[in-house]
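Morning!

This is the sequence you dropped in the shared folder:
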Amino acid sequence: MTTEEGSIVIVAPPSSGAGGGYHPGGSDEEENQGLQGAEGLVSGSPSAVQGGGVPFAQLQELMTIIDNLRRENTDLRNNLTDQNLVIQHKSRNLEQINENYRKYDEMVKAKHQETALKFKRLKDENQKLKEDLEKHSKAGHTRDSNAGEMVNEEVEKELREQLEEAQNRIEVLEKQGQSDGLPLDARNFETQLQAERNKVKDLQEKLIQTEDLKQKAEKRLKAAFQDLAKIREERKKDAAELQDNLVQEVNNYKQQIQSLLSELAENKRNLSLHTKKVQELHEANLQFDQVNTAYHSKLSMYEEELKKRDVHLEQMKQDYTICNQSLKQTLQRAQTEKHEKQMCEEELQRVKQSLHQVNMQVQLKKGEIDSLTARLVSMEESLESRNQQLVEANEAKNIMQVQLKQYQEDFERERQAREQSHHNNQANLMKLKTLKDQKDLLQKEVDRYAQQQAVQAFGNHRYSHPPSPVTPTSPVYSSTPSSYLPYGGQDRGYDIDEQHRQEMFGQAPNRTYQRVQEPVQQSFHCPMCGEVFAESGSLEIHVNTHFPN
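The structure's back. Tokens below.
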């Protein structure tokens, strides 16, 4: 409403409001009714004015139309806000789907790492079992070797042979004593015989002890074999349990993969549904653009109608000038209404601005829809890559199963090779022990033979040799025949000690000797190669070369 020189001009605002929104629930009939009401207000003639209250009623109807347009604009804003919230919700859903895919990827990687760690742990346990079996095997074979060293059939056989040889030597000595016509020392013979008997007794005791040790060792060996069998059964049970656990874990992995595949299919279905919803929103935005275009066309029509109404109001101004006197009373009210009209115009301007903002938001939503479409394409590509990763994970699992089987076969071959090597080493140790025992026996025989030779040489010198001018400590011992002895070759038992005693007291007989025969050189033969040595020490050194330590 504008006042010019006391006249009042009423201008009806457009029903849609400048820049006002579009209400999807409103119809064209309601808009036409609003336009008709506005035209009725404008086209009213001065004769239709009854008193001073009619123009105010028309302005009230105009304000009602403006309020309706405001409500429509508010509803349009609310609708756009709801659509924006829906789009935001869909965006959050897409982000949640991305997050789910990321978690799924992390879960697959974690499962792969966990599987690798389990295979590594199984491999370490397998190695540990190998070491334990090797330790127990070594311990069992050590006990076996100790028992074999304590109780050896060959040693027992050698002891029996030594016993028989000692008995044979006793018989030979007795026969020698009976058949030999020379006078022998009975005490020395009895001493040798008693020594041989003691040796026989010692050998018998050793044989009894050896049999006892053999029985004890057999018992310990049986117990060791039983322990080893129990340990092997326990290891077999542990290996079977580990294999069952591994099969169960593989089945669990298969079930988890199947559940993940079903979740992936469900996510694909949800993604297709969200894609359809986004397409529907895109189509709704296109429809909204069409409606907005129609709304702007109607707005231009309303502006033209307003111009016509302005012309009509100019004509009405003349009519209102006639009734100026009657309207002076309502001048104050008209001024108030003028202020309200200005407020309505300002509101109309704000509605135009809000419509412009809505158009800008629509453009932004179009860009967001394009970005969402691009994200959908990228998500489909990521799904394909995840499927490829699942296929690679299955192939890696099959390869690991083949490697585990190969490890088990290698373990069996290594165990058999170790057992064969241990048996060979055990046989070599037994041979070495036998050779050492033979060496010790030969060494004892050589020592005993040397001792017997020395004793025999000393006896021959004491009872068969003539007195010698050399000292008793001289190493020269001669075997002089009876023709070289004084007094017709008779041996009167004249020993060196008696001669020395008589010479000291001046009672030594005046004996004459024709000559002294040189002592016979004694030789020693090697029982292994037959080589001849002059001394027993050289023979002992030579025998040690046959049996190196």
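Headline: The longest strand covers residues 2-4.

More detail when I'm at my desk.
O.
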